[in-house]
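Weekly puzzle thread! Below is a chain. First person to post its structure in token form gets bragging rights.
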Amino acid sequence: MHTIDLAYVGRGLHEELTAYVADQQGYYADEGVHVALHDGCSWSEERLRRVATIGLGRALLSRLTGATPWVALNVNTHRPLFWFLARPGLTSRPGPASLADLAGRRLAVHAPHTAPGCFTRIVLRRAGLDPDRDLHAVVRPPGDYGMDLRRLRDGRIDAAVVGSTMAPEAIAAEYGWQVLAWMGDHFQIPTVGVAVDPTHLHPDDPAVQAVVRAHRRALQVIHDEPDTTVRYIQAFLGRHTAEEARAHYETFIAPYFTTDGQADLAVGTTAIMAVAAELGVPATVMAAEFYRTGTAAPVD
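Winning reply:
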């Protein structure tokens, strides 16, 4: 049996669901690979590049800013699972608030040099806001966003960009808050899957290809077996009811996770240009170079 180290660099369904399904369904064992899953959220780039990673956004930023030759071999979704969650009172006009109403407000965000932080800045600019001048950014590290909820409740912040450790619409309903926007509606990028740095781990390595095959089988489960997938989702969303977990699955997972792990290169091209522009660096990699398409190699 082959062995491989696989690291996630964010927490929640966005990063972990497909790997979790592959593990629970026994697909890694079926494909002849033992996978050691690691929390790489705080790992240095040098340490991360020695293993396979789930975080394609971080890999892309690293390739654009540091020329680390990451390649993405499998893509789970083109819609980042992050949401803008806000307390009431952002606007005095009738009707719900919008992203533009964050002007002058305190927003909890990821750091600009992180993938979700970069994506957030792109979305804010598209809403007509300068993320450095038009609002007060409260930068915090990746986590389960529990502190953000506490700060929203006591009024220390007005809004927060939160990830998939929760079902944001259920949280908003529980506290009387509002989901201002889903990032995936405003910015698309082939994101989360399997990526490797060929300097240390060849894309055609048997263990790598076994993981890709297992994840593509897991993507089929996510589409074809909703009851099974919702049960797995509840392992992540422990504070939510089965009905809330299913609503989250039906709204954000089932319609937007890929069935075959393939990247849409047109989406990838547009996304790379946007990310490079936000980072202030040249777009030195083509989508077809970074997102490799095709069928995973069969078992030897």
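Puzzle host: Confirmed. Bonus trivia for everyone else. The CA atoms of residues 88 and 177 lie 6 Å apart.
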